[in-house]
Specification:
The protein is built from four helices and four strands. With 121 residues, it is α+β, with helices and mostly antiparallel strands. The two termini are 31 Å apart.
Length: 121
Amino acid sequence: MAPTDTYEPALHGSRSDQVQSLALIPEWVTEWQRTGSRPSVAEWTPAQTAAFLYAIRDHRLYASYNLIALRGLRRGEACGLRWCNIDFDPGAAIICSQLQQYNGHVVLCRPRPLTVSGSSP
């Protein structure tokens, strides 16, 4: 993938052409072009995140992307979320499981615990 290519995190739909402007933070793109080394983490600015969420607003996985982007869920936690863990009245979700891949199989397991600072170890 070249630095000028579209960066589409798991999005393959009719709106993918609208995501082209969401590549990466400009400084990272410059470094990528200079060195050819792609960053291990692709962070988006708030404006890029808002544009991405707007572009996929009709996508079937919009709610998952929204939770990941705005509430900090990990991919596995979003995939492991069940309807019975969502309470729509107060707008709350209980994250008590996640999907992970082990030895070529997808398994449901407990999410990683948070540290005192609120981030995972």
